[in-house]
Every structure is written in C-alpha cells, then in structure tokens.
Amino acid sequence: MNKKIILLMAALLLTFLPAQPALAQNATPPNGPVYIIQLGDSLSGIAARFNISLADLMNANSIADANNIAAGQKLIIPGLQGINGILATATLKYGETIQNISRRYQIPVNLLQKINHITSPSEMYAGISLIVPQAENAQPLSRRVEVPAGQSLMESAMLVGSDPYTLTALNNLTGAWAVMPGDVYYTPGSAAQGASDANGMPPTFASVEIDALPLTQGRTVKIDITTQPGVILTGMLVDKPLHFATLDETHAVALQGIHAMLEPGPYPLSLQANLPDGSQQFFEQMVVVQSGSYPDDPILLVEPATIDPVTTETEVKQIEAITAIFTAARYWDGIFQSPAYFTDCFTSRYGNRREYIGQGTEQKYYSFHTGLDFCGGEGLPIAAPAAGVIVFAGPLTIRGNAVIIDHGWGVYSGFWHQPAIEVQVGQSVQKGDVIGKVGGTGRVTGAHLHWEVWVNGIQVNPLDWLETVYP
What we know:
This protein is an alpha+beta fold. Among the domains are: 34-134, LysM domain (Membrane-bound Lytic Murein Transglycosylase D, Chain A, Roll), CATH 3.10.350.10; 143-189, Membrane-bound Lytic Murein Transglycosylase D, Chain A; 300-467, Glucose Permease (Domain IIA). Helix content is 17%, strand content 32%. The protein is built from 9 helices and 28 strands. It has helices at residues 3-16, 43-49, 54-60, 98-105, 109-116, 153-159, 164-170, 309-323, 462-467, and strands spanning 34-36, 74-76, 86-91, 129-134, 143-146, 184-187, 205-211, 215-216, 220-227, 232-237, 240-242, 245-248, 251-257, 265-274, 280-290, 300-302, 346-348, 353-358, 364-368, 372-374, 381-383, 388-396, 400-408, 411-418, 428-429, 434-437, 449-455, 458-460. The strands form 7 sheets. Strands 17, 20, 22, 23, 24, 25, 27 and 28 form an 8-stranded antiparallel beta sheet that branches. Strand 27 (449-455) and strand 28 form a beta hairpin. It starts with a helix and ends with a helix. The model is unreliable at 1-29 (pLDDT under 50).
C-alpha cells in the first residue's frame, strides 16, 4: 500500500476516536513544610495532628489512597503559612522547656506553640512527641551557657569563647540586661565535657537521661544523672521517693518501677541537688506515662479465703514493707537469668488484667498479674536469677510458701507457691543457685512457678530484666 495512503488513513482514524480527558499535571509541587512519615503513622492521624482535613492533606500530596503510604515518605503539610523546612518529630526530653527548645533550634516560641497546638508552657510534658521545624541539615545549638547571680553576660560569654552580642541575638534577648541569673542560654560550639544533654535545667544538672520516654505501665525506669562533684541527689517520681546510687563523684543512678495499673497521663518527676556549699537546686517536670496494652486473662475461680479483702490487703502491705527497703550495696551484676527449668515457656505473663471469683460465692477481686508464670510442674528446681540475700522465707495465704531475694539498690525477686521452704533468711545466694522447687500452695489453680521483680516497691515486668542490663 502507498505510504501516503497509510498516513491519510491513520489521520482519519484519529479524527473519529473519542477525545480523552487531559491528565492533571502538577509540575510545581505546593509550597509548605515537609513532614516525614514515621513507622506506625496513619494519614488520618497526621492530618489530626496538624489540625487539617484528611482531604486537604491528600490533595496537597496527590494521594489517591489514604492507606498507601510508607515510612520515610515526605508529605507537604498545607495551611502552615510562613513555615518551611522539615517538620522533625522529637520526643521531648526531661529538662526541656518550650523556651529551651526555642533557643536551641532557633525557632520562635509562638511558632512552636502553633505547630504543636500548645496553649500553655505547662503542657510541655517529658515524653510527648513534638514537631520541630528545621532547615535542611541544620544542627541545634548544644553548648550551654549559664549566667550565675553576680556575673555579667560579658563574663559568661567570654568563658565559652563567645560574646554578649551573639548570645543576645541567638537567645532572642532584648539586651544584655534581660539575662536572668540561673537561666540557660545557648551558643555555637560543642557541648562542654560532661554536658551530654543540652537541657534547660539548673546548671548543677550537667545531664539527665531517662530510659525510656514516654514511661510505660509496668516498666523499669532508669534515671541517670551527671552533676557537679559532691552533689547529693534526691527526688520523687509520681508518689515514690527516688533512691540514688552513687557510681562516682559526679554520676548517680536511680531505678524505679511504674505501676502496671497507673492511669496513663502526665505525672510529676522532681529532682533536687544538694550542693556542698549548702545551697540547693530544684527542677520538676511532668512526664508522660503510657499504657502497657495488657490483655485480660480468663476469669479465675479460687478459694474465697484467698480473695478476702482483709487478707489480700494485709499480705500486700507485708510484701511492700519488705521490698521498700533500699540496700546501698548492689549484689547483682549483668543481666538476670531465668529462674525456671523451662526458661522460655509461660502460662501467663506480667500485667494481664485479672478477675477472681470465690468458688461458691459472689465475691470478686479485680487486679493484675504481678509476675511471670512459667510452664513446668511440681518438683522442678527454682534458681536464683541473680546474686542477693534472702530477706523472707515462709508461708503466706495467697502466695503460699514464698521466698524473697534482695538484689540490692531496691531490686527484689519473689518466688511464690513452693511446696516447702528450703532456704533461710540472711542466706546469700549466687546466680543459678537452687532456692526451692515448683509447687501449688496459696492462690493457684495448679502447680507452677510465679516469679516477681520489685523495683523500689513496685512490681515490674520480669522479662525486662531478662533482656536488659541494669543499670
């Protein structure tokens, strides 16, 4: 066929084909700050966080399917006029305030409040997730500058190799006269030695590290503090006085359990430093406690006497009195080992919510499972999970024949339901020593080993101590 005829037929065919709508092209992406999707994020959750509609968020990013997103993906956040850069997600550390964050990241306070919907500085709870806008590859200021009472800004600036004009500008001060004694300011340069955490706390607290924020029901909290030499530390978390163990002249650590049934929300953590000259420095901030997401166990039928309110309360107070004692010596070293013969087989885990019903009665008792129940029947050996001293060995109504080991520093292990007592109070034990056998005494539905770990008077998840080295 002639080549010209072929071209003519093709042109006629195109003429009669139905017109196709043009696809919308977005050659220039919308302006605005960028949020990087984190693992576990949902598009609706991101929209709610920035107080925008899901439709607006999807339209701004040309997203057709709200479920088709991935961690690491960049999203334009519409409606935040005047804000650019990356909207980084950061967990607010203990000691950080909105003024502190503003100075470190060079972001106006009102802008931080707008992005995070903060109506009051008191809402800056340690452990909250905070959105902080940052320029590409920007590094926050990390060198702290304290201006003690009686010292000028000029003197303080010179001590860190800076000048009052730089400090005034970077810290958004109206002038050198606006400096507040004891306040914390920032300047370019590396953090001073020992000041690994550039927080907004009083200068005695060189660093405060809390592992991990936010706090979680049933977990062990480690509070690690570096101070000036000769400082004595005290404190309070929720309603528990903290006990600090001194590691060296500038370093101390406290371990504290978070109750498994503590209502999620913000709670006070206060720290006080008693200085060698007799002065004191104090700091308090609310810290967030989140749910441990513990499931419900099936309802358990038990002997009525084992859920009698008078009996249960008396026995709990007895155990609490024993485990509230802080022993200055630390007997354990390294990670704990499982006390059970079958080390990784459990019939019930820590934290599970439980309802007990007295057999043949309407008596009920609601609580939580305070330890780990291991597989394995009567007569199997129970081993000490770590070194310590026996501080209780005897019969109890609910816990049956029980043994408690003091591991030092406020850490205790309890072993319930044994058939007989095979150790004595005051006896020292090493990791792996046999301290008893599995039995079925007390409030049980069958023979098993129930192991508890107490940290400063609170039961915590024993699995943490099998997986984490404390301190």
